Amino acid sequence: VDAQQKATQAEQSLADLLAKLDAANAQIAEAKNAQTVAEKALADANQAHAKAIENLNTEHSDALAKKDETIAKKDEEIKNLTSDKAKADEELKGAKDALATAEQTIADKDAQIKALGEDAGEAPDAGAAPENNGEGAKVQTLREFDPSLYKTNKERKEAFERYKRGEE
Questions:
Q1: DSSP per residue over 70-106, as a string?
Q2: For a 10 Å CB count at each end of the chain, is N or C smaller?
């Protein structure tokens, strides 16, 4: 009986150990499964991280290129504005020179006019006088009929007829 009891106990112990082994194997399988899931999650996270870094690098490169392009455009605008300013300054200088020349010409003309108005010619009596003696152009004056010179209406009418014919 002892041997049978020991054999039963040994079988019982073996069954307990097998149950513990099965439980341990199940835990190992769960742990491996959890490890696989964790490794996949880590790989996904690393891939997402790498993609995010790549996107950030691309955005950064694009922003730098856009900044460089903007700076180049602004430099071109500054160059054009500087050129336009230089042209405007040159035109202003030309206009000032022209104004100074015009002012000097006006001053010279004013001096000539003043000199001509104040000083007599060097030989005022030289040459013959003009026929009209400086009276200006000959202007034809209109004829007038004065009826007060005639006493009667009949004389006035006759004189007026002669006036119309140019006899008087």
A1: HHHHHHHHHHHHHHHHHHHHHHHHHHHHHHHHHHHHH
A2: N
Reported confidence tier of residue 141, pLDDT bands at 50, 70, 90: confident
pLDDT in tens, 10-44: 999 999 999 999 999 999 999 999 999 999 999 99
Q: How far apart are CA 36 and CA 40, in angstroms?
A: 6
For 125-152, letters b (16+ CB in 10 Å) and e give eeeeeeeeeeeeeeeeeeeeeeeeeeee
State the amino acid at position 141 in one-letter form. Answer: T
Token pair in block for residue 15: 């069954």
Phi, psi at residue 123, to the nearest 5°?
-130, 75
User: What does the alpha-carbon distance between residue 109 and residue 20 come to, in Å, rounded to a whole number?
Assistant: 129
- Taking phi over 0 as left and psi of -120 to 50 as alpha, with beta for the rest, 50 belongs to alpha
Tell me the pTM: 0.39
How far is the C-alpha of 40 from the C-alpha of 46, rounded, in Å?
Answer: 10
Q: Which residue's structure tokens are 């690393």?
A: 46
Tokens (6 digits) for 122: 């060097």
Q: What is d(CA 158, CA 10) in angstroms, rounded to the nearest whole number? A: 185
Rg (CA), the chain: 64
pLDDT at 139: 64
Looking from the CA of 112 toward its CB, the CA atoms found within 13 Å total 6
Q: Which amino acid is at 12?
A: Q
